[in-house]
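hiii so um. not sure if this is the right channel but i have a protein structure encoded as C-alpha cells and i wanna go backwards to a sequence. like what aa goes where. can anyone help
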C-alpha cells in the first residue's frame, strides 16, 4: 500500500526504499518463525501425536517446513498480493 501511495505521489526513490524495508521486515519475521520452528522440531510434533515414528518423521521434514515458512513469508510482499486474512476482512466488511 505504501509503495503504491509513494508511486502515485511521484516519489519513486521513496517507493523503492519502502519496498526494500517491507521485504526486509517480512524476511526477518519469517526467518525468526523458521528458526523457532527448526529449534523446536523435536518437540513440535508431540503437540499433535504421541507416536515416536511420527515425531521422527516430523523432525526429519522440518527443514522443508522452515524453507516453506521463509519463502511464503517473502512471496506475498514481492508479488503485491494480499494474504487470506485481507480477503477475509474485505468479505466481512462487505457483509455489513
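sure thing!! here u go:
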Amino acid at each position: 500500500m505504501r509503495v503504491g501511495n509513494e508511486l502515485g505521489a511521484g516519489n519513486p526513490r521513496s517507493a523503492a526504499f519502502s519496498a526494500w524495508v517491507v521485504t526486509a521486515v517480512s524476511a526477518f519475521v519469517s526467518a525468526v518463525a523458521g528458526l523457532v520452528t527448526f529449534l523446536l522440531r523435536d518437540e513440535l510434533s508431540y503437540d499433535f501425536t504421541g507416536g515416536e515414528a511420527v515425531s521422527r518423521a516430523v523432525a526429519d521434514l522440518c527443514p522443508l517446513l522452515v524453507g516453506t515458512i521463509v519463502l511464503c513469508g517473502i512471496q506475498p510482499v514481492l508479488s503485491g498480493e494480499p494474504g487470506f486474512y485481507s480477503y477475509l476482512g474485505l468479505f466481512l466488511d462487505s457483509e455489513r
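oh and The CA atoms of residues 23 and 77 lie 6 Å apart.
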